[in-house]
Amino acid sequence: MARAKAPRKDLAKQEGKPDPDDREKEAGKAAASRIINERERRAEAQSAFPHLKAGWSGSLMVGAPHNDANGFTAQLTEALGANDPRAADFLLMSALNAGFGPKPTDEATAVASVRGAEAALAFVADMQPRSSLETMLLLQLAGLHGSAMTQARHTARADDRNALADHNRMLNQTARTTAALAEAFHKLRTGGKQQVEVRYVYVDARTQTVVNTGGGQGGGLSDFPQPHAPAFGAVSYAPAPGLPMRSEDTGGDALPIARDQREAPLSDARRKEPRSAARTVERQL
To answer: Are residues 73 and 80 in contact, defined by beta-carbon separation less than 8 angstroms?
Structure first.
């Protein structure tokens, strides 16, 4: 006769663990409720990855755990985001060959190998892939993540300086590749949309000041007596007819516009040579 298992609460008491307080109980119930609701929502949107039956007869055997082969194939195809069952079978074989579990050599290792591939495919199905290409990238992400965690474990347990450096280097390379692949998956899912920054340039007609909202070299509105030159590469504009232009008059009176109203570029207000060079010429003279 099978021995009945002790309730979870009794086991906790036997281990000397206290009961959760009211706040912890409410938090646990709320978390369990959210998980159940999210699982139901995802179940309505897309199937979870089905369980696999594993066996060994000189080679690895994988199949449905029940006699409804058509339903198993449909659930497998939908969970992997494929449209063709043959594509889903290819993705399944890819996961089995990726080595998520031990190398199958007998019944026990065959079951462990299939369970490892099943866990990776469950991760893929949890991301709800929309195409076979997304499933392929997610499988690679799962493999890279497992490799990175293996290198992290070897790095933490390394007792030799050279071994530590080797595992650290491999961990860094694997982590960088994982990040690049995750970015590629994100672009594939979002359609490669990028944020475009638009910058506007305004020209003040009174001072010929170039105001770049993106942070250029042109100055803003200022009381500096000399008109500002436009930023390098910017276009200069002649003053608008009828508008006063700043002058050296400290009283603030406007300098009238000349009779010639033709549009012409303004001269650059900056010195063509630095002041230090001018001083050097004066010293030589």
So the answer is: no
Tell me the torsion sign for CA atoms 183, 187, 189, 194: positive
29-63 pLDDT, tens digit per residue, is 999 999 888 877 766 666 688 889 999 998 999 99
The pTM is what? 0.55
Give the Cα separation of 272 and 275 in Å (integer): 9
Paired sense of beta strands 209-212 and 53-56, if any: unpaired
In contact, 42 and 128? CB cutoff 8 Å: yes
Query: In this structure, are residues 228 and 269 in contact, taking their beta carbons and an 8 Å threshold?
Result: yes
